[in-house]
Amino acid sequence: MIPVERHQQILALVAERGVVSIAELTERLGVSHMTIRRDVQKLEEQGAVLSVSGGVRSADRLAAEPSHQTKTTLYNAEKNAIGRCAAQHIPRNSCIYLDAGTTTLALARELLDRDDLLVVTNDFMVTNLLMEASDCRVIHTGGTVCRDNRSCVGESAARSLRHLAIDIAFISASCWGPRGLYTPDEDKVTVKQTVRDVSSKRVLLSDSSKYNKIATYLALPLSDFDILITDSQLSAAARSVLREGSWELLLAE
């Protein structure tokens, strides 16, 4: 059986059952465990499936970014814990970037008593909070306005970042997994990739509900990050996978 035929059978089984074990796929397709692992890796790279401990399941695909208003009602305790954890990793007199999102907004709330920071952001809610309630210096990127997300995106936002030297970038994710972080919005990709390029250190901030989900665009691979900060609800299987990487995994409580 050639690889394409195996891939079709794997996809058919996953579509029918939701989750299929590696052992069952090995037996049904009559190939080695390593061959099935390679097949699953290839399908995962295509966004067709997701690996789980001991098996494979259908991919949870995010079709569109939830609005800022919707996100403010979700996983607030986890986001606040992540914000507190992240704030502990910001040295005095740093230039930091806060990506758009309610988790980075939770981090911004932890910085209100800081007067030593230069904060760069594309998020209007972060800008307003720091402008009104802190002594931080603030730079907003400008750019194409994304109303639902209360932020700026696109090439014009990215262009304003290219002349900066950022110490630590705190980057949000619509969804993420072992391969990297994803977004359904192409205009966000350029901004995230640009801030990666101009930052000395990169930190992913994302709650565990977004883990092992995908969207249309792979914005950044996990290997671009120095630290991953998520919440303590992350599954044991996910922890095991992520601790094999070159980054530091922190679980906020």
Automatic annotation (TrEMBL):
Name of protein: DeoR family transcriptional regulator
Record bears the keyword rRNA-binding: no
Pfam families: DeoRC (PF00455), HTH_DeoR (PF08220)
Keywords assigned: DNA-binding, Transcription, Transcription regulation
PROSITE patterns xrefs: HTH_DEOR_1, HTH_DEOR_2
Keyword match Transcription regulation: yes
MF terms (GO), sorted A to Z: DNA binding; DNA-binding transcription factor activity
Species lineage: Bacteria, Pseudomonadati, Pseudomonadota, Gammaproteobacteria, Enterobacterales
Domain HTH deoR-type as annotated: residue spans: 3-58
